Amino acid sequence: MIVSLCILIILASIYIYFFPFIPKRKKHYTYALLLGCPAHNDGTMASSQIKRCDLAIDTYKKGLYDTLIISGSNVKNEYVEAQVMHDYIQKQIYIPTILEANARNTFENFKFSKEYIQKQDVVILTSQTHAKRACAIARQFFDDYGCVWYKDHKPKHIVREIGSRLIYIKIELLKKVGKY
Fold first, then answer.
1. Cα 95 from Cα 165, distance rounded (Å)
2. Residue 26 main-chain phi, psi, to 5 deg
3. How far is it, in rounded angstroms, from Cα 67 to Cα 107?
4. What is the pLDDT of residues 16-56, one digit of tens each?
5. CA 159 to CA 165: how far, in whole Å?
């Protein structure tokens, strides 16, 4: 019993170390970073893309940010995530937008968007399941960031995120020992 409790405490400590609490959100940011996700193979939008875009629209209407950066390449098929999402948003409302179309994963979303954001503040727009890992990566690039998400309880998204968090921990551990 005590051994199990100690193991649980160690695992919880490791998790909190790699995935700290999401910072308290401010009332306004210079930039919003909309993290991409793939369209379907026929070019139609995935439900996750639509939800993220709707989140970007809603938060813009509420005055949360000035300029939207949409980040994402053509990872799963020929359709560039940033462009597909941009087209959807602009059909509904004009939002000042920068497209970052080279990122192939969450780490690269931040790495390539840093060029535009520089030292400005940024709010990350993503799904609930993705928010914790996105913020863990964001803290490597930005000092002043927050996060807004939509609820996401799809089992396949939760399972994929668990795997992604384990990979993230592995990569971060390898960085610490100089092997990545």
1. 32
2. -85, 175
3. 21
4. 888 888 989 999 999 999 999 999 999 999 999 999 999 99
5. 10
pLDDT digits (tens, 9 = 90+) for 117-169: 999 999 999 999 999 999 999 999 999 999 999 998 889 889 989 999 999 98
Please give the single-letter amino acid code of residue 106: T
Rounded Cα–Cα distance for residues 54 and 14 (Å): 34
Two tokens, residue 30: 């210079």
Structure tokens at 150: 């939509």
The 3-state secondary structure of the chain reads CHHHHHHHHHHHHHHHHHCCCCCCCCCCEEEEEEECCCCCCCCCCCHHHHHHHHHHHHHHHCCCEEEEEEECCCCCCCCCHHHHHHHHHHHHCCCCEEEECCCCCHHHHHHHHHHHHCCCCEEEEEEHHHHHHHHHHHCCCCCCEEEEEECCCCHHHHHHHHHHHHHHHHHHHHHHCCCC
Distance of CA 173 to the CA centre of its chain: 21
Residue 165: both structure tokens together: 């968090």
